[in-house]
Design a protein that fits this description.
With about 110 residues, the protein is an all-alpha fold. Helices cover about 80% and strands about 0% of the residues. α1 crosses α2 (about 30-50) and α2 packs across α5 (about 80-105). The two termini are about 15 Å apart. The relative contact order is 0.13.
Length: about 110
Amino acid sequence: NITFNVFEHRKVVEKYLQYQGNNQDFDASPDDIIAVKELQILIEIAISKMPPRQQQVFHLKFDENKSEEEIADMLKMNPTTVRVHITKARQTIQNLIKIFVFFFMF
């Protein structure tokens, strides 16, 4: 069972793509570039399948780096509800990536 922090990886992927676009000497294979772009697309698909409120919480937490308490205050939600949205968002992305990896492994 392989588990990793998808959200931190997403930020790394975005930085990688920005760096790759700005650095002509960057030494990445075409397969690596394609794999990174596919993973980025997969994450975006997973996010688009989330309910709107969950997308909003996800965006605030991982794109704007807001704390759970800040999100709860901003959205007038219970902090526990924010944590539930974050947990479900992570599960949605992890499950989709597991399926993706399974199909590429076999």
